[in-house]
Amino acid sequence: MDRLFLARIVLSFFLAGAWIALVTLLAERLGSRLGGLFSNLPSNILISLIFIAVSNDVHFVKGMMPAVPLGMLIDTVFLLVMMLFLKYGLTLSLVMSVSSWAVLTLVAAKLPPSGMWLSVLIYFAGTIALYIIADKVMRVIPVPGSGKRYRPWQIVMRAAFAGTIVGSVVMISGYLPSYLTGIISTFPAVLLSTMVILHLNQGPAFARATGKILILSSSNIIVYAVCVYYMFPAYGIIPGTVVSFLVSFAWVLLLGPVTGLLEKNIK
To answer: What's the gap between Cα 92 and its chain centre?
Structure first.
């Protein structure tokens, strides 16, 4: 294992773990809607793509990007399955959701690579359908935040749990070709750890409500991937990362009023 790859794993553990600990705490304070929006800002994928671009090149990263929308669509299915089974217990929910992700990923790996914009179109069509199922069929309703407080060691344990999941996925993805890496890089490590933490601390109703918003806010990662697809080859790694993150942050701000209106229309 070379030093650059090891550094990527270590940074993923610490930075992604700290980020997930922060956003889950914010979600618990702000409520399921705002928590779900900001939880999907690029974190693991941002760190991973920088290191992949340094260890390979920007064109390798560009070759990964058409697979990201497909990977995120699989992640939204993962979320819906997890939300569906949470009422039967966390263990069953994890087994069913991870199994669904694994099966769909194996199927996706056998499909011929598609172009960037076709992948984006398929992602949005599928994600909108999944959100409608969560909203109209499952009737998942928003849940307000709480004032629950935690000791410092509890926050550290939260970060360590999330960081371990993310770091493990980064390690596995380092041994795969570019297109498959694009799918594996979207393994719902952040989503899984976020949902588990919220379920354990706030209960299944809060986790399900946050998950419904996470389905929509996963589009933020697609916006980031499209920006990287064009920005990395044109402007390089660091400028491309900064611009892509700012655009994805702006996308989250735009989603805020949209999700607010959608949640108000729930009867």
So the answer is: 21
